[in-house]
Design a protein that fits this description.
Mean pLDDT is 84; it is low at 1-14 and 290-307. The chain has three domains: 16-149 and 311-341, no CATH class; 152-282, no CATH class; 360-528. Helix 5 runs antiparallel to helix 6 and helix 11 (220-251) packs antiparallel against helix 12. The chain has helices at 12-39, 41-53, 60-73, 75-78, 88-105, 109-128, 130-135, 137-142, 154-171, 199-216, 220-251, 261-282, 313-342, 469-481, 505-528, and strands spanning 177-179, 182-185, 188-191, 360-362, 378-386, 389-398, 423-433, 438-447, 452-461, 464-466, 488-497. Strands 4, 5, 6, 7, 8, 9, 10 and 11 form an eight-stranded antiparallel beta sheet that branches. A three-stranded antiparallel beta sheet has the order 1-2-3, with no helix packed on it. The protein is of the alpha+beta class.
Length: 529
């Protein structure tokens, strides 16, 4: 006589087999993720090295453990979801891999890292299926916070903090004179630099606020509202912090909050603001578990629900794992091949001669200012005189570019943040007519105690020119993808003025009309060597 389990229920033996199958698939997924970490070891290490050296991004060490913990807390629920490999995820991995390749060829490290981390949910999707990846949506998405992102936000954050502080000082009745992120009040001079941008506060608030919203609320609306507040509040709080620090220095005759102590005050103030934010958020908490009439947690009632597992799911998981490893490993291997294709052993040389007696060249720039470039590019710096007019020309030429030795880098700057002589007090994009056609240039105004400079600069990439660093990265990626060289340069011209920057405009324009053909010819010659 045989006994059948009631319809809709799973026999204990079947359940043990299913859970064993899930454990095997989970272990297989973990091994596959580890294989991808190894295949993309350069990208992995680039993230870890930033976590090590930067206090701003040190939280990256905690993101993966946090995510693992969140997955562990859902283990009972996950036991009810059988592995169902999804081939569609393999197509997503192909797209992600190609995107990673483009980012690697263009040396856009942050994009490389984001795409690399995004591969992890795709692996889970491919091996364990759609239901599993949906159940783990937040822990998997939370991994993206491990990427050291935020440097692009520094300029707008500095601008907002300077605007907020100056406006608050004016409303307090204190006269302010401002130039860019620098401003002066009767008691002293101040500037909003990178450390004062509030980026650290913003990243810390968003990282903690997102986790808090997930653990505290159940409704999507409340979660999104709290996450938005965790972004807005630290930005405004940083403006208030900056204003209070300036007022403290002003009222104490510049005895307090003028050194490292103002950073300490800032963290104390930020801690207070975060405590206030989380306290307010706790008033609408929804983190109590739903209970049935017997007082038992519903999440523990899954043992009586039917569990359906498609035949051959475990075999499909092994096949999906193998396909994932093959697809994911192809892109770094192909990227390495392309690197060898355009790599060149010769160093570029830039030589420019005058095209007429109108502009006389000298080896020493007249302004006394030079831009800062990293990675030892080939460089040219000269001053050109024509009567009473003077123009400085700088060219920085890069070949065989890689991380740390590339044209588009946050470390390549006109003026370092704490430069004791020069300040960048304004910049914009300006259309300029060179005679052969109109192009756009990045225009900056530099100022020292004795001199004002108008600076124009743009990127040269063989047959194309642009002012946008993002477009320059895309053009370089395209060149490398086609197996061409990655030679690129930045051209800078500068001229001094007395009162208005418009005084230097016709001087720079005239110089470029006369010299641009020779400059372009010299760059092409350097590329061909």
């Amino acid at each position: 006589m045989s006994v059948r389990a009631p319809r809709g229920f799973v026999h204990d033996g079947d359940r043990i087999a299913e859970q064993s199958s899930l454990r095997t698939a989970a272990v297989l997924t973990t091994i596959t993720v580890a294989a991808i970490l190894f295949a993309y070891h350069a990208t992995t290490w680039s993230m870890v090295s930033i976590w090590e050296r930067s206090d701003t991004f040190a939280h990256g060490f905690l993101i993966f453990p946090f995510s693992a913990y969140l997955i562990w807390t859902q283990r009972e629920k996950l036991k009810t979801i059988p592995p169902q490999p999804n081939p569609l995820a393999l197509l997503v991995l192909v797209v992600l891999g190609f995107g990673w390749l483009l980012a690697a060829l263009a040396s856009v490290q942050v994009l490389e890292q984001y795409i690399f981390v995004a591969m992890i949910p795709a692996v889970v999707w491919a091996i364990l299926g759609s239901r599993m990846v949906l159940a783990l949506a937040f822990p998997l998405a939370y991994l993206l916070l491990a990427v050291p992102f935020g440097e692009a936000l520094i300029p707008p954050l500095i601008e907002f903090t300077a605007d907020f502080t100056v406006k608050a000082l004016q409303l307090s009745g204190i006269p302010v004179y401002r130039e860019g992120s620098y401003f002066a009040i009767p008691s002293g001079n101040w500037s909003v630099v990178e450390a004062c941008s509030g980026l650290r506060y913003l990243i810390a608030s968003f990282t903690l606020g997102t986790l808090y919203a997930y653990l505290t609320y159940r409704s999507l609306a409340r979660r999104l509202v709290f996450i938005v507040l965790s972004v807005i509040v630290p930005i405004i709080a940083n403006g208030i912090r900056a204003y209070l620090i300036v007022m403290t220095g002003h009222l104490s005759d510049m005895q307090l909050a003028v050194g490292v102590d103002h950073l300490i005050y800032g963290w104390i103030f930020f801690g207070f603001v975060m405590l206030l934010l989380f306290w307010c958020g706790s008033l609408w908490r929804e983190d109590k578990k739903d209970e049935n009439t017997d007082g038992r947690d519903k999440s523990s009632m899954h043992h009586g629900l039917p569990v359906k597992e498609s035949p051959g799911a475990l075999k499909g998981a092994f096949a999906a794992s193998a396909a994932v490893i093959v697809i994911a490993s192809f892109w770094p291997a192909y990227g390495g091949y392309l690197e060898t294709q355009f790599s060149r052993s010769t160093d570029p040389e830039i030589t420019i001669s005058g095209i007429s007696e109108k502009w006389q060249a000298s080896e020493i720039p007249e302004s006394g200012w030079t831009p800062v470039y990293v990675g030892e590019p080939a460089q040219l710096g000269r001053a050109y005189q024509s009567g009473t007019f003077s123009v400085d020309l700088y060219i920085s030429y890069y070949r065989n570019q890689r991380q740390g030795k590339e044209l588009i880098s946050s470390e390549n700057v006109l003026v370092p943040e704490l430069d004791p002589i020069w300040r960048n007090v304004g910049q914009r994009v300006r259309p300029v007519d060179f005679g052969s056609g109109e192009i756009a240039v990045n225009e900056s105004q530099l100022r020292s105690k004795s001199k004002n400079l108008l600076v124009w600069r743009w990127y040269w990439l063989g047959d194309e020119e642009t002012t946008s660093p993002y477009m320059a990265k895309m053009l370089m990626a395209r060149k490398k993808l086609l197996g061409r060289n990655d030679d690129a340069a930045e051209i800078i011209v500068a001229s001094s003025y007395d009162e208005s920057p418009d005084e230097a405009v016709p001087i720079l324009q005239g110089f470029l009309r006369d010299m641009m053909p020779e400059i372009t010819r010299s760059l092409k010659n350097a590329e061909d060597r």
